[in-house]
Amino acid sequence: MCGIVGIVSNLPVNQSIYDALTVLQHRGQDAAGIVSCKNGRLFQRKDNGMVKDVFRTRHMRDLLGNMGIGHVRYPTAGSSSRAEAQPFYVNSPYGIAMAHNGNLTNSLELSKDIYKQDLRHLNTNSDSEVLLNVFAHELMGQKKLNIDAEDIFSAIARVHKRIRGGYASIGIIPSFGIFAFRDPFALRPICVGEKDNKDGTKSYMVASESIALVAAEFTLLRDLKPGEAVVITESGDIEFKQCAENPQYSPCIFEFVYFARPDSMIDDISVYKSRLRMGDKLAEKIKLDWENNDIDVVMPIPDTSRTSALQVAERLNVKYREGFIKNRYIGRTFIMPGQKLRKKSVRQKLNAIPLEFEGKNVLLIDDSIVRGTTSGEIVQMARDAGAKKVYFASAAPAVRYPYVYGIDMPAVDELVANGRTTEQIASYIGADRLFYQDLDDLIDAVWQGNKDITEFDTSCFSGCYVTGDITSEYLASLRLARNDKEQEQNRSSEQTFVGIHNGEDDET
């Protein structure tokens, strides 16, 4: 999962893009990058790290121009190397930089085609570089000195025919403008906003989530539809066009469960209100399954589950308390690379308040349970803080299947719910009792926000992949690739820890 943004304005955009990436930092903490454009020349800064660490004053001064794109990275394909920080750039044709959120499910065969048929070279293992080169090749077919919006739309239409998976992408072409497009299933979010300038012109922003628009005082126009593209020229002309032959509205439901900020709107659905409804439905299930419960207090696992936990407490008529304090300077453990690093970071991230736990039967609410690592650590923390009994509830159903469209959980054997009953999972994480949201209830909680959506991608819960191209062989190849990547990341994190412990430079 990544965050992307693009802006066209009559004012310098470097600070606005920086601010938008900061707001989207929850979508990726591995790397960040910005490409801006002035007088037909591109300026770039990208590196591994958080937005605040990648961009210093000297870098911002060099990011000139009134249009640009930005990216925050959470690695799901390729590696976490500095070379794979985005945006990527190709010189031909016209000079194109592109940022991408999602995951291509046929990137391996595309990589071969790019070399053998398109005669293009790839410098990394990133599927984002694959996507950029596929687009560049299709745009090169125009063989024109000066391109227009229709040329971009035609190239994107051909891109849709070649690639598969979930993707939302933003690109920039010098002396022309920016463009963005969304996969035919709308798996990855992307929206467009506008702002009136003092001289009567308009500025436009494209971003992964609406909160990036709001933070920069842009007004949300709308989300891109499945398969749709938008072109915004340097002069401020904007045009939308459907570029896919058979679009199907199937956004990823996990965005609403975990990834998106609660103050965002995605596909006309309030993330906050959908999480309220998740809490309502979870509480109803608990009451149905356990009418005479002995729960003394409901506590959220901060931050994503707070909204649902509030509703659970209200519906159960039980006290709501904040039992855990979050260290704001530790990243989201779900998206940290490496299992050992995730496990180590749980207790650095959260600290229990013993007074809220002592002698009480506590119901902990989390947005989801994926690997079980964090959940088990938190249950133990609650017991160590004096809880009499520890119950656990997930606002999402059991995650039993790999997710392949841009979330870093592709290996079946990492999923605690795979091959286990609810009772066995409760025992695994050390809880006295465990509740999962029903899938139909989750779908209804989100769907109530926009009933024009035909279905949601629920593949990590149901095993049904909306793109129709996911085979057991593909999942097996992902598992092997992930195991190799995990071992490399664990070695890297261990080496870095040793270097810091010995007082050596933090780049050891």
Question: Could you characterize the architecture of this molecule?
Answer:
By secondary structure, the protein is of the alpha+beta class. The protein folds into two domains: 3-248, Glutamine Phosphoribosylpyrophosphate, subunit 1, domain 1 (4-Layer Sandwich), CATH 3.60.20.10; 273-453, 3-Layer(aba) Sandwich (Rossmann fold), CATH 3.40.50. It is 35% helix and 23% strand. It is built from 17 helices and 22 strands. It has helices at 14-23, 51-54, 57-62, 107-116, 127-140, 149-162, 210-215, 254-259, 271-289, 306-316, 339-349, 354-357, 373-384, 422-429, 439-447, 459-462, 472-501, and strands at residues 3-8, 31-38, 41-48, 67-73, 88-90, 96-104, 165-173, 177-182, 191-196, 202-207, 219-223, 228-233, 238-242, 265-266, 269-270, 297-300, 319-320, 324-326, 350-352, 361-366, 389-394, 433-436. The strands form five sheets. A seven-stranded antiparallel sheet has the order 3-2-4-1-10-9-11. Helix 13 links the parallel strand 20 (361-366) and strand 21 (389-394). Helix 5 crosses helix 6 (149-162), helix 9 (271-289) runs antiparallel to helix 15 (439-447) and helix 11 runs parallel beside helix 13. The two termini are 27 Å apart. The model is unreliable at 493-508 (pLDDT under 50).
**Quick one: how many beta strands?**
22
Largest sheet: 7 strands, antiparallel
CATH topology of the largest domain: Glutamine Phosphoribosylpyrophosphate, subunit 1, domain 1
Strand arrangement within the widest β-sheet reads: 3-2-4-1-10-9-11
CATH superfamily of the largest domain: Aminohydrolase, N-terminal nucleophile (Ntn) domain
**Which strand-content bin applies to the residues?**
15-25%
Overall SS class: alpha+beta
Q: Low-confidence runs (pLDDT<50, min 5 residues)?
A: 493-508
Q: Provide the CATH architecture of the largest domain.
A: 4-Layer Sandwich
What's the Cα radius of gyration?
23 Å
Please tally the helical runs, counting DSSP H or I stretches of 4 or more residues.
Answer: 17
Highest CATH level, the class of the largest domain:
Alpha Beta
Distance between the termini: 27 Å
pLDDT averaged over residues: 91
